[in-house]
Amino acid sequence: MNDISRRDVFRHGATAAVLVATAAGFASLASSGATAGPGRVAAADPRDFEETYKGKKIKGEHDKDKGKHKVHINGKKLGVMQVELPVAPDSTATYTAVLSTLNHFDPVPLDEGNNRDGLKKLAKLAVDQLGDQELTHDADHPHP
Amino acid sequence: MGTRKSVAALTATEKSDFVAAVKALKAQTSGRNYDWFVRTHMTYFNAVNSHNYAHMSSSFLPWHRKFLLELENGLKAVNPAVNLPYWNWTANRSTTGAPFTSDFMGGNGSGGNGAVLSGPFAGSTRWRINVSATTSTSLRRAMTLRGSLPTTSDVDTVMGVSTYDVSPWGSSSGSGMRNRLEGGLTPNLHNRVHVWVGGHMAQVDSPNDPVFFLHHCNIDRLWSRWQTRWGFGTAQYLPGGGVANVVDVEEVLEPFGATVASTLDHRAGYTYA
Which positions in chain A touch B47 (Cβ < 8 Å)? Predict the structure, then answer.
């Protein structure tokens, strides 16, 4: 959490609270049958991305329900892990962040507000880390 | 009984013996060779048998204590005189000083974000990366690009927290010594050093950089220092029992087959100078 100020962390927490309510709204919409149904594919998350960064193709797909987000770099899968972290010492409030097999000790906040681009930031960090390298099959290390 | 010394206090012979033993373990073709440690760290970063043994959990410290002991035993099988040294990053903070000297761990990556160019682990012919999330077969470092080194004040803050860990015993634990030391909570002593070294040290396969073991030896030293102040007994590890999917004090740390309780008092096996 070395790059996150305490003010940022509290803001993430507040945003997360708003998002819980928003997510509940989406769940209600889905259960009404507006988007669900046999043969229907879940709508893409508006935060999903597919672009080229420093010569590498990065693709990200969000999994809002289960936190099983997917990132591919030049078509190869990057292992991604969603974690909950405390917003401050002695607080029970948490914020959501993502790690990858390449940035394993450097969580990036992710939400649907100010940190909506968290997964893309994680993908770009991985590209920066890669430099002239590519991912191997071990980059798709399974995470809980 | 072994004595683990600071990297800054090693003699030239101690440094060359350590490097030679590490390379001999790397060259071993079977059993718990060096790459076994890389693979095991990757495997146990995840939940195994529904337990987070190695990271983001109460057992972060005892699991790595056993991990270091396994490596140290492997090195001693090569040369019984070798002990793991520790990198005290509150005192040794330069990218060119101990342990990053050409006679020990070598220096930074090329261009500040590439292959290590100096020292006994530079280049794939001297030190080949076999198990990794990336295609590089040479050790890489990117020191100072991200992260930072903890200060003495940061360490003192963590040492002053009397409670080992708190529920929910994971990355979101809002108090306790363990999460402050591991890095889910400020001041974050462990994670930020991995990030500061960068390259392989920032990745899931971080033990590919031998500096990993010097860093974790310091983490173990700090836990030992905390234990010296607050106690080595089983009551000083939490959770004590009955918590599902968390390694309680009498549960076994896999893949080592040893309980947490058996790791707590290390003083009969090794001490820190």
Answer: 144
What are the structural domain ranges in chain A?
6-139
> Is A83 in Cβ contact with B134 (below 8 Å)?
no
- Which residues in chain B land under pLDDT 50? none
Domain A6-139 adopts which CATH fold? Answer: protein ne1242 fold (3.30.1880)
Q: What is the dihedral of CA B65, B48, B210, A127, to 10 degrees?
A: -140
- Total domains in chain B come to 1
Range of the structural domain that residue B11 is part of: 2-272
Q: Is the bond leading into B239 cis (omega within 30 degrees of zero)?
A: yes
What's the CATH number where B138 sits? 1.10.1280.10
**What residues of chain A lie within 8 A of the CB of B174, using their CB?**
86, 88-94
ipTM of predicted assembly, 2 dp: 0.93
Average pLDDT over residues A87-96: 94
In total, the C-beta contacts within 8 angstroms joining chain A to chain B are 113
Confidence band, pLDDT 50/70/90 cuts, at residue A41: low
Dist CA B228 CA B266 (whole Å) = 11
* Phi, psi (deg, nearest 5) at residue A56: -115, 140
